[in-house]
Structure formats: structure tokens, C-alpha cells
Amino acid sequence: MDALTPAPLFLQPDLRRKRVQASLLERPPGPVRVTVEGTPYSSEGELATLIIDLPEFQPWSPDNPALIAVRCETGGTNPATPLAARFGMRECTLKDNRFHLNTKPILLRGVVLEAADVASCADESGAQGLVARLKRAGFNFLRARGGPIPARVLDAADELGLLVCDELDPNGGMQTVDATVMARRNHPSIVIWHIAQSDDSGSAMRHVHQLDPSRIVVTALDALEGDSRFMRPYQDEIGALDSAICHLPSPSSGRAERFYEHVGEPGMPVLLASFGTQPALTGIGLSGSDAALDRELADREIDRVLESAAHATTAIQEARGEALVLQIAAARVNAKVAGYCVDGLPDVDAAGFARVQTPLMLAIRASRTNLVPREEVPVAVTIVNDDRSEPLADLSLQVVGPTNQVLWKKKRSIKVPKQTRDVWTGTISASGSVGVHKFVVRLMQGMKLLAQNRIDLQVVEPAPVCDVEVSVLDPHGEWTERCTAPAKPAGTKPRVYIVPPLTNTVRAYPETELINLLNEVRAGAVAIVFSPPADWNDLAERIDDALKATTVDVFGGFHYVRLHPVFDGLPSRCLMRQAYRNIVPRRSFEEQSDERMCGTIAARSGDDAPWFGEDMLVRRFGSGRMVFTHARVLEHLGSDPVADRLYLNLIRHFGRRSVPGEITQPIQQSVLDWLRRERSERARLWSLIGPFPNWGGAGHDTKYPPEQQVDLTAIHAGWRDPVRWTRWYVIGEVRNEIDFDAALGLPFAGPVSTLPETFYAYAECAAPTRQAATMRVRLEGCLKVFINGTECHSSSARESDSTSREETVPLTFKQGKNAILIKLARDRRPARLSVETTSATRDPLILKWWR
Q1: pLDDT tens-place string over residues 216-251
Q2: Nearest CA to 720 among 688, 695, 683, 701?
């Protein structure tokens, strides 16, 4: 850490009055003269604080980092050595929920600099290079985390024009905080002081504000729960800041981009304090040449995809950069976002960050990016105008084919709107060739390029209908039509069995049909199990270890594809990039696959070595094969040609290996009995839906559609996506644990801020007689409970509630069918419920839960 010596001279610019206030840390015994070097402006007196008029000056900004040098001399009998300092004439504040610099709104386009990133700034040239690289990529803001920013980086930010949020850690003692502020408060690049912890009383904020009233002070930007707060320069009021931490994985999905387009509390400044796809794998050998990792890649035959550690590093940085560009563009469209900080220093020279970080930005939104030849797709082009200028310009649109030929073009003259607005909507079409097509949009003023952007469209040859007989395990009739449409209807002995994502526990699978399916596989058939539940191995251990498929969350991993018939006609021998955006798995398997097709490289907590998993796990079971995958293929059949082709490739490839035979060794009856007992005695079905909004805590009293009518087939508008009811089984005779985040949340990579959201849980049961009961609900947030459509309990969480509490709800079950609806409105707390229902009398509670 840099030595922290308080600056003896503190310079506070006043742009409106065209002057600067110079304050000496210690009052000298004689007269003082402060001179602005290179100008005739100066001030002289015997006070510790002097005012220097500056009728002419250039404001300091990222576009014009004009530094001003000052010289301070003292008189008297023993004059001190003259003091030299530099500063910039600039002012910053928060106004109308936007950051302002020199009275103009500015979007903070930033990165987070970790302590580990300081290695790239070992000397002055390294610091200058870092700041220059960030500026070339369109970033204008740098946030510290894990300690203050090195002084050499601050000097480079002053000179080249980069705004800075510097971190203060009160855990090191307020003396360290004081020393940091007083040593650095002349740097014009520092516009925000960040106190890296909660400050409910506001005492730490006011203390820093007293030391330096000229800057914004914020707290707890990295807190996963609770509120961040801020103070404006020269004002005493403390306000609330919506600071979000949200990493969504690579490749970037449509759901991820819609999240960034809508995130943020209305009526509040919104800062995505730690944002974007997960940082690349660091600290585990993926940082260049590494002989041990090279051998690991070779032993696993991954070197046929990623030749070396150096190649893996480059490929991961490119994939991450591609996803970040799309996510930044989505955040730019969100008018609530006042700034964002990309987490983890990106390889800014390898990605097209600059085209989505210009003040005038073109955002492109296509309903689909994977197409078949000659398929049309609706597209919208949106202009984001941070400068609020309204020039006349020409909008140019082109579709470019795989060989760089222009397939279609259009041009129109427009007046650039002040506000974010669509400037073109229409339909574009792929050519008859397969490969990557580009939709390129430019905004031109004569020969001057004002803005440009592009999206890639992956055109895939559709797979022909196959003749493999397929049978689907589908107790609710939701998957059969889409899974059998491109295949041959099943006969008496289908070659491939499809097990779709049915629910969150194997205990709720239809036990007889599942055991019959496993018997057929043991006799020679093939079963493809999509998204097996986490407790699948509870069943496997009772049958055969060959059935084991241990699921591991790898939300922060990168997925690769081998050259294999399953990926025929699709990108292979590469990382899964945007072509796989809809189907890339978020979970992998620990076991080694009998047939290697695709896998994961991920970092695991507490492990210095990379973790390797299988994304498609093939296991021999008897004479047949079990294939497990968490790839989201079935969910996108019919809407994504990559999913369609991968599904048919899977069926065709494993259909050739399927030889259905006679069942000679059926699975033991005890396994079927265990499944039946678990399902009937321990599994309880809840239907969950959400998230709906809870901005400003309004969700508790807002009557969303489930309160008006429970229709388990309905689709409703959520705060970011349409939402539908999801089956969720809880296991337990007495207490029901319901985790809305696990059931309905996005696949965030790493820590994530909890957002203000509203959820519903619905269950049905039958009572033989009228019964009085007590429901105990443990939760964090606001609660409502309805029985048979009537509200019977409502409670709001107090602001001081930071831990879970238990609510007691009296219920009366009528004879016959009963419906329970629970509403949870959470405000930056985990969305979990623990529900226990017991008799309110001495008689036992007799209920039959619907399954």
C-alpha cells in the first residue's frame, strides 16, 4: 500500500463562482501566497484559507483532463520550502438519479480494480498503459475494491482523464480513513469516496464528508443484502442508492440481457456496482504458459479443443468479452442505470467494448439469433443518447453473409432523438448459406461515423427428420408432442427413451414408468435424461453405481465442445459461444463419461486448480446406456435450430447404439417400493411463480394475478420476463422448505444482490373434516397467507429486520379440497420460506396433500 502522507494544501474548486479555495493543513506564522502557475492569478494573506479567483479556466473532465499547478509560498522570518500541488477545476454530484460532472449528466462506464489487478501497474508506464487501454475501450470510470487505488494509477487517471471511486475501509481504523482522504483529496479523478461497509447511523459518511465535502460519499457497494447510501457534496442529507451485484454467465442469454434492461429501483440512483459475465478463471493456472495444465488438458484430450493453457486463456477472454459487450448494451438501454462497473479487468484489447460505450450508442435487439437458411427474424434498433444532442444523421443497415458479401442494405435519414428510443424496427432474413451472418448498423453524418454496432446471426442447416423410435416419460403430457414430432412414433420397443426435466426431485418422478424405463435400458435400450434432479443418486445407490450422475453447479464455468457426431452441423472444437446461448448448461457432472462429447472448465471455491466436468455424461447400464445432460435442449425445441439439430443428433447417434432386448434381470421390487413410499409420504407439491415487482416495497399490497385467480396454466407479466407456475416438491413430513431463488431465479455466476421481488407459493390438500390448524412460517420479508381465496394473515417486515423471523398463522381447513396461497415480498433478503402446519387442538391434523 502507498504511504499516506496528508497533503499540506487542500484545493477545492468552485466552478460557478470561478474560483478555488486553498486551505493549508497547518497555519504558517507569516503571510501566505498561493499562485496558479502559468497565469496571473494568485492570492495572498495571513489566513490558513485563501480564495483565488480564476476568471478563465478549462474544466477537468475525461474528455479534457486539464490539470492546474499551484505553488504556495510562506513569508516571515523563517519561510518554509514552497509547496507544489495540482488539481482540476471540476465538480461532481448526484442529481435527478444521475451522476453529474461539471453540471452535465454522465453515465459511469466503469471497471472494478481488485488488489490482484495492481500487478499490471508495477510502474508508472504500467499505470499509464492501464488507464489508456480502458479509455480506448470506452470506459470512463474505475472503482477500487479490496483497498485504495495505487497512487501511480491515480496520477495516470488525473493526466489521461478517468473518473475514480476510491475505497475506504473503516475496519483498518478511522485514522487510516483520515490519512487516505487527506492524502488524496486533490486528485481531480476521484469523484466518489466509498466506505466499504454498511453505515446505518451515517456517522462514518459524515466524518468523511467533513474531511472532504467536495465529493460524493457512498457506502456498502459490495453488500449482497441491505441498502447502500450516499451523500452529495456540500449537503447533509443521506439518500438511498440502489447498488446491485449481478453476474450472469457466458455466453449471454436473452434472459440475462432482459434482466439488465429492467434491473433497478425506480425513483432511485441505480449503480451496477459489480456487473457482467463472470471474470475469467484466474489464479488456477489459466494465465499463460503452464506445463502442468498443458499436461492436464492433454490427459483429458481437451488439447484437441484448447491446445494449451495459453490458448485456453485467450479463448476464455474472447468468450467473456463477447458476452460482456451484449450485456453492456442491454444495461445501456435501461434508463434507470446511472452507471455500471464490469467485474474483473477485461481484456479490453480483444473485444469490441468501444462500440457499445460511446455516448451515442446503437443497441440491436433480435428476437432470435440462431436461424435456418432464409429464415426471417424481427429486429429493433434503439438509440441511446447520453449527450442529449439532436443531430441529423443517416442510419445505415446491412446484412453481411458468411463470405462478407452484403446481402441486404437500407438507409434512412433521421433526427437523433434526445431520449432512448427505437429508430428502426423491421425484419431481416438469412441467406441460403450456413454460417455466421452479421447485421451491421451505422449512424453517419456525412463521412463521419457517429456510432456503430452489430450482432451475429448463426445460420444452421436444419437436421432431417430421423427414423429412430422415441418414447417420452411425460406424466403431465407437456413434452411428448415436441419431443416426438421430429422422430418416429414409438412402437412396442422404442430404441431411445427421453426423460425431460420433470421436477426438482427424483422422488416425484412417476415411479412405475421410471423403473420400467430403467429395465428397458438394462436390456439394451438408451435413455437420455435431461436435467436430472440433484438427488438422482439417492435412486442410483439403490440400483447400481453405474447409474450415478453427480450434479455440480458451474454457473461461473466455461463450456467446450469436442468434434463429435452429436455436434454435427454445429460449432465444435471450441468454447460454447453465442450460438449456444439458449442451451448452454449451468450444471455439469463429476463422473467420467464413457463417451466424451462436451465439458466444463470451472474454478471451484478454495481450489487452486481448475475443475473439469462432463456436460454430457454417458454411462453403461447393463446392456444399454444412460445419457445425462443439463443442456437446455428440450426447452428450446421448435424455437432454436441449434437445439433442434442437437436433439436430433443425440437421438440419431444413440439410436444406432440402442439394441432393445428382453428384460431378464428386472430391478428389485424394493426400489419401486422405496420410490412409491417416498412419493406418497414425504413429497409435497407446491406450485411457485415469480418474480413480480416489489419496487419501493409496493409488492406486498399490490394484487398480482395469483391473488385474483390461481390458474396453474396461465402466463403472467413479471418484472423482467413472462412468468409461469413451476412445480416444486419439498421433502419432509412436517416442515416444508421452499427456496424461490433456487426454483425461479436466474443462473447467476457467483455472489448476487438480492432484489426487491414478490413470489407466490400455492398448494392444495384435502381434509376429511373441518379442522383448526396453526401454520408457522419462517421468512425474511413481508408475508400474506390466503386459505381458500380468503386472506387470513398479513404482516410487513420492519426496516430493522435483518434476520429471519417466525410468523404464526391460524388456519381453518374445511371439509374437502383446500387451497393455500402464500405471498412473499422480499426486499434484498433471501427468498425462502420454511412452512410447518400443525393441529391447533389436541386432535391430530389429518390432511392429504395433492401430488
Answers
A1: 999 999 887 767 999 999 999 999 999 998 888 889
A2: 695
Over the stretch 365-374, which tens digit does the pLDDT of each residue have? 999 999 999 9
**Separation of alpha carbons 529 and 544, rounded Å:** 16
Architecture of domain 682-849: Sandwich (2.60)
Whole-prediction pTM:
0.93
Distance CA(365)–CA(656), nearest Å, equals 40
CB 228 within 8 A of CB 220: yes
Q: Does domain 9-87 correspond to CATH entry 2.60.40.10?
A: yes
Buried b / exposed e along 765-801 (16+ C-beta atoms within 10 A): bebeeebebebebebbbbbbbbbeeeeebebebeeee
Lookup: cell for 22: 486553498
Rounded Cα–Cα distance for residues 515 and 671 (Å): 8
Tens-digit pLDDT profile for residues 110-161: 999 876 676 567 677 888 998 999 999 999 999 988 888 888 999 999 999 9
| Sign of the four-CA dihedral 706, 711, 712, 713 | negative
3-state SS of the chain: helix, strand, coil percent to 5?
A: 20, 35, 40
Domain limits of the chain? 9-87, 92-342, 358-459, 469-669, 682-849
CA separation for the pair 399, 407 (Å, rounded): 5
What topology does CATH give the domain 92-342? TIM Barrel (3.20.20)
First vs last C-alpha separation in the chain: 61
In our burial notation (b when 16+ CB lie closer than 10 A, e otherwise), range 149-160 reads bbbbbbbbbbeb
Residue 333 CB: number of other CB atoms within 10 A?
A: 18
